[in-house]
Amino acid sequence: MPIAEKTVEKAESGRALLARPELVLNQREASWVNDTVCAVVEKPAPLWWWVAAGAFGLLAAAVPLVVVYFISTGLGVWGLQSPVFWGVAILNFVFWIEIGHAGTLISAILLFTRQRWRNSVNRAAEAMTIFAVLCAAVFPLFHIGRQWMFWYMVPVPESYAIWQNFRAPLLWDEFAVGTYFTVSCLFWYFGLLPDIASLRDRATKLWKKRLYHVLCWGWTGSLRAWRHYEAGYLCIAGVVSVLVISVASVVSTDFATTVLPGWHTTIFPPDFITGAIFSGFAMIVTLMVPLRAAYPGLKDMITGKHLDNMAKVLLATGSLVGYSYLIELFMAWYGANPYERYTFWNRITGPDRSTYFAMFGFNVILPQIFWFRFCRSHPWILWTSSVLINVGMWFERYSIIVVSLERDFLPASWRHYLPTWVDWGLFFGSVGLFFFLFLLFLRVLPSISVAEIKTLLAKPKRQRTLEVAAQEYGFPPGKEIYGLGAEFSSEEELRRASEETRKKGYVWWDAYAPYPIHGMERAMRLSKSRVSFFVLMGGLLGLFIGIAMVTATSIPRPQLLQSLTTGQLQGLFYATVVQGKPYFSLPAFVPVLLELTILFAAFSGFLAVVFLARLPRPHHPVWNWGELSRRATDDGLFLVIEARDPAFSPAESRKFLESLGGRRLTFIPR
C-alpha cells in the first residue's frame, strides 16, 4: 500500500476514535424534537404523575400546617435553645440555597463556556433553581420570629427614622438571595421564549394560543431577532455566572465573619461554592434519571454522554469537597487554637460523630466510584449515589451549624440539640414542595429546551413528498400583498439564498428558522448586536444607584444649608453608626453594589432584546402564511421578501427564489 494511502487510512481511523458521542441519538429531526418534548405538556398526565403529585402534594401541605402551628404557638416548639439559636431552620436554608446554585451554573456558566451537552439539562436545572430558592426562603422568613416586621429589611428611606445596616452580612444575604432569585427567574423565562412560541403554534384551543402568544411576546423566529436573542442570552449568562459565585460567597460570609470556632475560617467561600456545585449537580441527576425513564423518548436527548459528564463533575467536585475537609482538619491542628482544635475533635468523637462520618462517607468516599465507567454509565447507580450525596451534604450543614454551636467557649452552657417534630415537618414539607413544584412544571412548560436541542441535530437535507409544492400559488384577489415567501430544505440552502438575496439588492427581507443558525449574520450582512452595550449601561446604572444609596445612608447628616455654604454636602439621610466603624466602608458595601449591578444588567439585557427584536408583536403578516406560522418554530426554514422592497416584482422575485431552490412559493397577504 502506498505511503499516502496509509497516511489517509490512519488519519481516518484516528478521527473515528476521536469522534465525539452524539448528544442526540438516532438521527432525529427537528419535528421529532417538537413532538416529543411538547407531548409531555400536551398529552394527558400519566398515572404515575398523579400518584407522585398526590404524594408530594400531601407532603408539601405540611409546610403551611406547621407554619400556622408554630406561629400561633411560638418558636419554643422548635428545638432551639441556648447555645443553639441557629438550628435546622438555617441549616435547611443553606442546604436549599446551595442546591439552587447548580441550576444557574449549568445554564449560565456552561453556556458561557460553550458546553454543548448543557442543552438537554439546562431547562430542568433552571426550574430547579427557582423551586430550591422558594423552599429556602421559607426558613429565614419564619426563623426571624416576628414575620410581620420583615419589611424592616427593605431599604425604604426614613420610614422608621433609621436605615438598614449595609455592613451586615445578613443584609448582604438578603440582597444576594433576592437578586439571585429575580435574575434566575428572568434567565429561565428568557430561555423559554422560543419554546413557548412552539407551544403557541401547536395549540388547538384558542385560549391557549392567545395565552402562549402573550407569554412569548409574539416571537416569530426571525433570524434578525435570533441575533439579538443570542447576544442577550450570552450577556445575561455572563452576569449570572458572577452571581453564582457571589451568592455562595455571601452565604458563607454569614459564618466566616463570626469568631465562633468551626465557623471563623477563610476556606468557607470556596468551600461553599464547590459544595453548591456538588449538591446541585446531584439534585439534577436525581431529577433527570427518573424523567428520562418516565418518558422513553427523552432518552435520545438525555443520553449516556450527559450522565457521564455529570458523574465526572460529581467526581471532581466531591474530590474538592474532600480536600476542603482535610484542609479544615489540618488548619485546626496547625493553628494551635485549643477551641478550634476541640471543635473538630468534637465533630469526630462527640455525640454527633455519626453525622460527621456520614458526611465524609457520602461526600468524599462515595463519589470515587465514578472513576469506573460502569458506575458513570449506569443510570440507577448514578441516581442512588446522587440521593446519598445530598443526604451527605445535609449532614455537612448539620455538622457545621449545629455541632459547632452545641459546645462553645463555656462548658457550663453546653447542651445537646434535638430537632422537634416541627423542625422535621418543615424540612420534609419543603422536600415535598420542591418535587411537587417540579412535577407541576413538567405539565405546563417544556422540560427540555426545544430550540437549543435543534442546534445539536445532524442537519441532512430533508427529502419530503411535497404535493403542495407542485401546485401554483396564486394570490387572493382583493388583498394587499405583504411579500413573497419560500421554504428551503437545509441550512446551507437558506444561507446561500440569503447571501444571493442580499447581493441581488433586496433590502426589505428576512429569514425565519426554529433555532439560531450561525453564519447567517455574514450571509445577511447584519451588524453586531448592541445588546451588550445596554447590558453595560444597565450595570453601571445599578452600580451608581448602589453607591448613592450606601453613601447617602452612611455619612452624617448636618444641616443642609450649612453643608451647602461650606461647599461640603455631607449627607441627606440618617447616618448608621455601627460600633464606631467608619461611616463609609467600601469593602463592606461591595456585596450590595455587586448585586445591584447584576440585577440592573440582567434586566437591561432582557429589555434590550425585546426592544431590538421589536417585541412584543401582537400580529405579524408572515403568520398569514399557514405553512410558516405552523413550522417556523418546528422544522421549517423560510425566506420572505417584502413587497415594499424597491426591487420587488411578483414575477421576477418568484423566478429568483425558484432559481435558488425555494419551494412552496407563496404570496403572503397583509
TrEMBL record:
Pfam families: ActD, NrfD. The chain crosses the membrane at residues 47-72, 84-112, 124-144, 175-199, 231-252, 272-293, 313-336, 356-374, 381-404, 424-445, 531-555, 588-613. Keywords: Cell membrane, Membrane, Transmembrane, Transmembrane helix. It comes from the Bacteria. GO terms for cellular component: plasma membrane. InterPro entries: ActD (IPR021776), NrfD-like (IPR005614). It is a multi-pass membrane protein. It is found in: Cell membrane. Belongs to the NrfD family. PANTHER family: POLYSULPHIDE REDUCTASE NRFD, PTHR43044. This is Uncharacterized protein.
